[in-house]
Batch of 2 targets.
Target 1
Amino acid sequence: MSSMESKKDYLLGIVFVTFEDTGPSVIFNDTDLTEEQTLTLAVEGMTIVGLDEGSQGITMKEKKAQVFDTMDDKRSFGPLPVPDAPNLRAMAITFDVESIESADHRIMEFGRKCILFLLFNEDYTREILDAYGLIKPYFSVIVRDITTENDLTDANLQDMSRKMGLLFSGKLPRIFTLMDDGSPKELIGKKIPASDVFLVADRNKSTLSILFYHPDPTVWRRRQIYKSASELNSSVFKNKLKVISVTEIAEMSKILDRLNVSIEKIH
């Protein structure tokens, strides 16, 4: 496992498994795990997550009729042990894709089960768990165009591995808003709902920027925002970020433009 452990990023790679008509099959692996290890992981993973869990009884026809991704078919599990690798752990994400050709009528109706295993060093379990709530919504965004089994190409799975790696490497800035009680809520996607304040955590710049979109918050709200930003910096980012305030509209727009994020208009 030496080459995997030499990487600086938390994520060491992915193992991608589909449930074929004949059973679980490993179709992609960019880790140093052997074929035997990945197959054992696939079988154990399928057993743990359960073949009937995730779809919630929703057919592929019903799913395609949904306007928004409810994420009902996506579930996350772990950390899980990795066969014959006591220093490694895996997170599992399950989802379904439409089957183009299957002799199993259940697969044709409800979709083919897929499991993405995210491999990481056991020492980084705390860092992985810190991002646990972000994993499924972020994954839902990057897997948006993978809808059928024909989309499970080597190129698409390589790109999936790269993007999931960015999530755990800390290279992706994270955006939060604050609820009325001051609790942070992480925002995902290129369009985010309007709010009076946003917190942008950028590890590359070592900053936690408070974007004051409300031009004149109350004294109580301002104190709440600073308190919540400080607590977020401590609990999630281990006080490694410098908290800065941004009040100029042009500078706030510049930050969001750099992140390729826009704020939804209020109708």
Target 2
Amino acid sequence: MGIALNHPTITAFLRTVEARRAPALAVLALAVAAVGLVACDEAELVVVQNNTAQTVVVYEDDVATELINPGLTQEFGTHQFRGTLTFTVRYLCDADVCDQGVLAERTFTWEEMHQAGGITLAVGSAALGEP
């Protein structure tokens, strides 16, 4: 005598198993996705030291991203990117006429930045040739 698969008890049992399996698979999929995002979302540290008497602006590929007050050091992260990324430091221009010359500038690939463990840009009197 065989077991009838259309028996109400077996059908109810199979529904229960299926109902429990779907949430477990969803939780497993979310856990795997979270681990993948953490592994792919690497960041490297960028440190800018402002040893000048004026506020400076840090540009990432010509987009102003950070303001650093005189005498302070600012740290921020940059996430993995393709191609190159250029960091430029200039004085903050808050007047009609001001110096917008480049105080520091460096261009990196992600691989270079990652191998170096981040980058440091220092601007100040020594970098400008001032006493």
